[in-house]
Amino acid sequence: MNTGPGRSATGPMTTESFEEFARASQGRLYRTAYLLCGNAENARDLTQTTLAKLFQHWRRVGAAESPHAYARTVLTRTYLAERRRRLRDFLAHVPLDPPVAGTSPELTVTLLSALAELPPRARAMVVLRYWEDLSVDTVASLMRCSESTVKSQCSRSLARLRDHLGDAHVYADHA
């Protein structure tokens, strides 16, 4: 019997199994949300909204083959829906905290600024494909589009990022 996060060896999906899953997944969901939103406040809100949705449907989520993949799908679709409805204001010039560990703050600000230049759907594709290291077919499935759309959008988005970043590598530590 599979007893990974969300699956209880003693019985059905419970509040305790959800809490265990949420504790195990919250950091990873937050990091992805931070890359999508570009600031800590909106990333926290998106993470909490995602966890609330997962809790509402915990029986279905907990029974899924991969609850973590299910959670990432909910997070991505929630982000895109909020952007489409303009329920969240996206602020490009917000103080960034905390910076991604292991990188210089200047490079992090530069990267997030460049990501902010991309449209929400293209940004989501780039984050899922290159940060989350998902396959083209997985991203296509999450985004409900064809694989060729993912490839072309990512290619165009990377070209835009390269143009925007220019010589951003000069900010990186060369230790």
Description:
The chain has 175 residues and is mostly helical. Helices cover 66% and strands 0% of the residues. The protein is built from 8 helices and no strands.
Say how many strands there are: 0
How many DSSP helices?
8
Rounded mean pLDDT is 80
Q: Secondary-structure element sequence?
A: HHHHHHHH
Whole-angstrom Rg = 17 Å
Poorly predicted runs of 5 or more residues: 5-11, 87-96
Q: What level of helicity do the residues show? A: 55-70%
Distance between the termini: 48 Å
Class per helix and strand makeup = mainly alpha
Biggest β-sheet: count, sense, barrel? none
Name the overall outline. Answer: globular
Proportion of β residues? under 5%
Ordered list of secondary-structure elements with their pairings:
Blueprint: H1 15-37, H2 40-56, H3 58-63, H4 67-85, H5 105-116, H6 120-131, H7 136-143, H8 147-165
Short description:
The protein has 175 residues and is an all-alpha fold. The chain has helices at 15-37, 40-56, 58-63, 67-85, 105-116, 120-131, 136-143, 147-165.
